[in-house]
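ligand=nicotinamide-adenine-dinucleotide
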Amino acid sequence: MSTIFSAKSYDFTSYVDAQNYINGQWVSAQNSDTMDVINPRHAQTMAKVVMSGAKDVASAVEAAKAALPGWQEMPIRERGEVMYKLRQLMHENIEELTWLISHENGKTYAESKAEVLKAIECAEYGCSLPNLAAAPQLEVSRGVDCRIVYESVGIVAGVTPFNFPLMVPLWMLPQALVGGNAFILKPSEQVPLSCIRLAEMLKEAGLPDGIFNIINGGQEAVEALCDNEDIGALAFVGSTRVAKIVYGRAAQTGKRVLCLGGAKNHLIVVPDADLELTAQNVTASYTGCAGQRCMAASVMVAVGEVDHIVDAIAQHSKQIELGKDLGAIVNQASVERITRYINEAESQGAKILVDGRGQGDEHGYWVGPTLIDHVKGDMPAAKEEIFGPVLSIVRVNNLDEAIELENSSAYGNASSVYTTSGDVARKVMNQVSAGMCGVNIGVPVPREPFGFGGWNDSKFGHGNITGWDGYRFWTRPRKISSKWALQKDTTWMS
Ligand code: NAD
């Protein structure tokens, strides 16, 4: 059975079933439940995924436990080698990975390729860790040296969402693996296929069996990971509803936990904003990945007279070709949820400037770009995560009102301002309650080496998931104080 994904276009292509990956082998789950993995562009089943439970998690933990000592003993430079090789393998297989992501998730070829490139960037951060992880040492007292060593946590786990099947696992793996841990990944059951190739590439890159394991499934598998006492740390990326549950449940066993949740990102647009830059950038932010990304613009806060910019955004939105420039929605339930928000806003008096409802061919799950003007701040379309290619425009009179509206959101992932005034940009950057902010940038992802993470209900736990914070999350600092000779003039500290 070949696991090479053969697609070279959007044409429907089936793939192997997603089993569990334990100790370097593909194995079935202990019960026979499966779920269909559906290509959203065709609404057609391309594979099945096993739905695991606590016994499968226990098997993965046993494999990790057995493999861990050998991996922990390796110097960090040798562990880092795996990331260099993984990076090379991902580059060599970039077309295959791109099509695999596109088919299981529904995003376009260009968006899928960008995802692989961003995943590679995360692997590159892993390559740099052997140099970054040199920790301080100081003679803290006469004849007494204190130094820090970053030790692995041990067996750790990651739970990931549907919208970035490859990149989000790569937010976690480089730091966790180079840090000396054994990892158990629970991918989204909607998109478990890219990780099949990831597991194989990690093996080819030299990762010992048992150091990376995949448990496929849904809620039951996640609950088993949360409850397992041998797992010392767990990171989660997904909706706020589930992030809160996982954060509370995993902490019950004393794990360290970091859970990234949903978002409702605001873009503040003031009259002096550059027309073309703003129109293009706002459109790209709300329609990219069909709005199914936690950094997507969801609310545009229009300050004062910006009708010319709204008109230009509408023009750009109308030029977007469904299927070519804008990918599919992940499933039918999401199409219905997105449509419900648009219908509701319309019935509450908002004006639909560009209407994406009922578009696309009848096969597949589609919603076109949708621009809704005169949304009021208290409407669900202005407050709740829609997670589709929909931009709600809320009109306000001045910058203070705009900042107040942004800060009334329960979320705090991203926030941007469009302006040519340094003073306006500075005020917004100082006052909005969001962890990742942009000036004239609609998707202000802090690229490597900066850490990715929001505030408020967009994140539960401390620190960021990527960058140096990620390394700190998956490691524990041991402080070692040493003295090698009796000092003549010792003090109370030595
Ligand atoms: P989701 O919360 O439904 O699922 C995420 C993961 O949790 C999946 O692996 C799923 O199997 C598991 N899960 C689902 N229900 C569960 C339950 N009751 N108990 C335990 N585990 C459960 O999220 P999704 O729909 O896959 O992804 C979209 C969401 O993820 C959006 O809200 C988006 O904003 C968010 N997201 C956030 C970030 C971020 O960095 N903040 C990044 C990507 C996606």
